[in-house]
Amino acid sequence: MARKALRLIGVNKKYKITSREDFQALYDVNVEFEKGELVSIVGESGSGKSTLMNLIGGLDSDFTGQIIADGEDLGKLTDKQLDKYRKNKVGFVFQSFNLISHLSILDNVTLALTLSNMPEKEKIAKATDMLKRVGLETQLKRNPTQLSGGQKQRVAIARALINDPEIIIADEPTGALDSETSMQILEILKEIADSGKLVIMVTHSEKVASISSRVVKISDGRIVSDTPNKKYVKSEKTLIENKPQTEQNLPQTKNKKKVGKERQNLSFGSAIRLSIHNMWANRVKNFLMAFGVAIGIGSLILMLCFSSGIDDFIDTTMKSYSNPQIVTITKNSSSFAEMAEYKSFSDSDIDTLVEEINTYLANKGVKESRFRVNKSDIKHGVQMMTMFTYAKVIYNPNDVSVDYFDKDALKEAEQADSQLKDSNVFYLYTIPPYYSNSNVAQGKMVDETGGIMLTKGAAALFEDGNPIGKKMDIAFSYADTSTTPITYTNITFKDGETFNDDTEKRRDLEIKGIMETSIMSNYMVLYIDYEYFQQLIADSPVGERLDPNALFIETDSKETTDLINAFLASNEKYKGSIEDQLANLFSSMSSTIGTSLTIISCISLLVSAMMILVVLYMSVTERTKEIGVMKSIGARRKDIKRIFTSESFLVGVLSGICGIIFNLLMTLIVSIILKYTIGLTPISYRWWYFALAMAVAIVISMLSGLYPASRAAKLDPVESLRRE
Ligand code: ADP
Ligand code: MG
Q1: Amino acid 214: pLDDT
Q2: Is there a contact between 205 and 185 (Cβ–Cβ < 8 Å)?
């Protein structure tokens, strides 16, 4: 006796309704089918026909009894084996066609082959051939929505046949078709059966049933009659040749076996392609979602650009102008008021400092053989703020006689002589040892022979922007030492004379150069040689030298400099140079800005992640039926997961790209705003920001996609197919 194509022995099926209650849909079903049969299953709605079809089709393995298909007991198969069974042994045709609307007709048919990772060419050849047989060779590129019901069902049949299954299951294949089209579809099914396959179809139509070779009637979950149709005539045409063409065309069976084993599942490439199709079908939604993520990603890069921009700014404008091996030390001010004070280092102060630094270095493990501070190597400097009353630097080309420290008098003189300018220099600095000729932008570096230099910021005060050759007055106040504790009152700069009033204690100093310094360039600073400055003071009848208030130590390395700077930072008595302090201020500002931007972009990334999660989750719900169809043609959980994962990957890529574009736009806008407000654009890119943006976007969307993907994979195919 020939082996039966399909045997059901004592099959019972119960559906769980609640945790306690079951509903029995099939009772003790015993039936056998042979190849070449065209079986009609008839029965009232709710009698259990679809339930039976789902069991036979391997969509539902929750039953008792035995279903033996092609020698295999479906109840005993693992999930993996069941997937294979659905992929290779059965083909499904549904009442509602269940074509995937975002794929072309050809792609709908090749899908089952894609799940087997068949090479592209072979796939297309095979699917085209199959579509030709059902009479659709001219419609390959069209979308299912453009087809009539009959045409759709032909596509579904082609899809069911593509893997050359032994059993075709058709659940009311003509239910949605008019009678003429029904007959055409039926004819195709008949041809399939007559070519040696087992075709089992559910039908309500008497007419359809009368054409089949056998009618099995089900009532309330039981087979109540099973009648062969004696008048059944085989058609002359057969839709399927005994051996499919393409298989014959394959060069070697050996080769095919190997290929079949290694690549029988959905490849990543195909998963990506399927996802691209689907994403294109939902392009508006996906683009909006990507745009949402892009905002987060864009601001993340912007934040990075800001931080690095400020770092770069500090680097190029501050650090590059100073020697990293020279440490500047000044005395600390504990209050804002104290900042105005001239806090000098006495000889014994310097002794203490040297000892403190050397002890610190020793404690930090710096060997004595390597570096110690020598008092004699320490260079001295003066750094004063002139914006307070004890020193004034004024451009007075017409040599107007005025008390610089008498505000009213100065104002009057200014009105009388428009060229006289008050307080146009805020800082008076002796030239620190880390400046060299390379810092001179115009003119020349001054030395102990005289002259002064200005920063660009100070030079800008001159109408023609070129102060070289012009003269400025320096005037020192000898006011009450309790408010301006400067020790060098009563110093005259007029040779040989002691001045008696404010107007006299000034001196013309020729501007010889313009300094390109550092951040100080933007401040109004007057630079003077230290020795020359001391000379001016010493030349006065008082004959004093001014104690330095800035000390410079040249170290052996950047590391030692860093150590000494760390010492200064840890010691309340001292601080670094104004440049260092400004650099620190900028750094702390940039880290504050950076932190707040990071928080904002993290929040927006979190929101983006939630959005992706929601959209992908909804997509699973929307595509439930599609997932069911995929499962019915043999997609494994893994394959479904893979498709959804590729989709979240693509969303990530898209978001990353949008984020980068969005960032470039934002940067442009922010740059323009900054340029016109603060005059600086502290924004720098590093190439890896884009890589990071891409990675973050991909990681975020893939993480958000995890849950929807696993939910999709877990969907029960029977339930999914039931969905309308
Ligand atoms: P038919 O296809 O013959 O119309 P079905 O096989 O779909 O009938 O359903 C048979 C019976 O099982 C019906 O009473 C139906 O309500 C019930 N049923 C089907 N699926 C489920 C399910 N998932 N949970 C509970 N009951 C179900
Ligand atoms: Mg049904």
Answers
A1: 94
A2: no
Give yes or no: residues 64 and 204 share one domain.
yes
Low-confidence ranges of the chain (pLDDT < 70): 1-3, 241-263, 317-322, 335-341, 386-392, 405, 422-424, 475-507, 518-519, 539-544, 578, 724
- As a whole number of angstroms, the distance between CA 30 and CA 221 comes to 12
Look at ligand 1, atom 10, and give the residue with the nearest C-alpha: 48
- Residue 4 gets which letter from DSSP? P
User: Cα of 181 to ligand 1 centre, how many Å?
Assistant: 28
- Say if pTM beats, i.e. exceeds, 0.90: no
Do 518 and 637 fall into the same domain? no
pLDDT attached to residue 597: 77
Kindly state if the Cβ of 22 falls inside 6 Å of ligand 1: no
Instruction: Please tell me whether residues 61 and 181 are part of one structural domain.
Output: yes
Overall residue count recorded for the chain in this entry = 724
Q: Residue type at 608?
A: S
d(CA 298, CA 655): 10
Q: Is the CB of 47 under 6 A from ligand 1?
A: yes
Q: Ligand 1 centroid to 519 CA: how many Å?
A: 80
Residue 1: per-residue pLDDT: 43
Let me know if residue 208 belongs to a domain: yes
- Among protein residues, the one with the nearest Cα to ligand 1's atom 21 is 15
CB distance 437 to 445 below 8 Å = yes
Give the distance (Å) from ligand 2 centre to CA of residue 50. Answer: 4
For residue 213, tell me if it sits in a domain.
yes
Any residues with CB less than 8 A from the CB of 521 and at least 6 apart, and which?
317, 455, 456, 457, 515
Query: Is the minimum distance from the CB of 51 to ligand 1 under 6 angstroms?
Result: yes
Give the pLDDT of residue 199.
94
Counting the structural domains of the chain, the total is 4
List of residues 6+ apart from 325 with CB closer than 8 A: 554, 555, 556, 557, 558, 560, 561
Q: Report long-range pairs for 141-146 (Cβ below 8 Å, ≥24 apart).
A: 141/104, 141/105, 141/106, 142/104, 142/105, 143/101, 143/102, 143/104, 143/105, 144/97, 144/99, 144/100, 144/101, 144/103, 144/105, 144/108, 145/101
Residue whose Cα lies nearest atom 27 of ligand 1: it is: 15
Shared domain check, 389 and 370? no
Nearest to 701 by CA among 659, 656, 643, 639: 656
- 3-state DSSP assignment of residue 278: helix
pLDDT of residue 506: 58
* Most distant CA pair in the chain, distance: 142
CA of 171 to the centre of ligand 1 (A): 13
What pLDDT was estimated at residue 476? 60
| CA-proximal residue: ligand 1, atom 15 (nearest) | 46
Alpha-carbon distance values, 445 to 9, 65, 353 (Å): 106, 103, 31
Instruction: Give, to the nearest 10 degrees, the angle between helix 179-194 and helix 149-161.
Output: 10
pLDDT of residue 235: 75
